[in-house]
Amino acid sequence: EAVARWREEGRVAVWLRVPILQSGFAAAAASQGFAFHHAEQGSSTLALWLGEGPSRLPGYASHQLGVAGAVLDESTGKVLVVQDRNRTINAWKFPGGLSNPGEDIGDTAVREVFEETGIKSEFKSILSIRQQHKHPGAFGKSDMYIICRLEPSSFTISFCQQECLRCEWMDLDELARTKHATPITSNVAKLLLYGYREGFEKIDITMREFPAVYTGLFYKLYHRELPESYRNIT
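Above: the chain sequence. Below: its structure as tokens.
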């Protein structure tokens, strides 16, 4: 009866949130045409398309976001690297991990670096973005992996032995040349070395915050730095 009424009212879609302790209702909803859209820890959300033609409802999140921090000590030319304990091949990489919901990219990099190495740092820029589809670690979904340039504010390593096998400050030039680094680490190390020698403005993707079209919300825009004369064009 409810579905018929919704159609009469001209609704094009209906969303149904089912708490985990009442999951039995999902079967009853499915018998009326509802299908799972997504699930979270305490509930699942089902959707029913009532409009004409194929469903135009947006899909749920298709990517997970990983962030790493390339912490460079400009006074020594050394960069912070780790070897993961859970890898079969002990290759050097930048410390990092998955971003939490609602967490900014730079904040993830700073947090993950501190959790893994004990080093405090400050976000400076984005260096690279990797996109990989059908990622085994993302249940076959797509994976975005962002590497940020960070500036250290502490230097004594106290690494997490549950996650890391080794952690050290390595010469950036050595990291760019070694065969004992992951491919993405090796490539970004070369990019970072170029910026270190020739100027970070040649490689940095910086961040600016703007008000969103939704009242009270803001977004962060990442792009190459604009000259002042272009930023102020009206």
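The chain has a mean pLDDT of 94.
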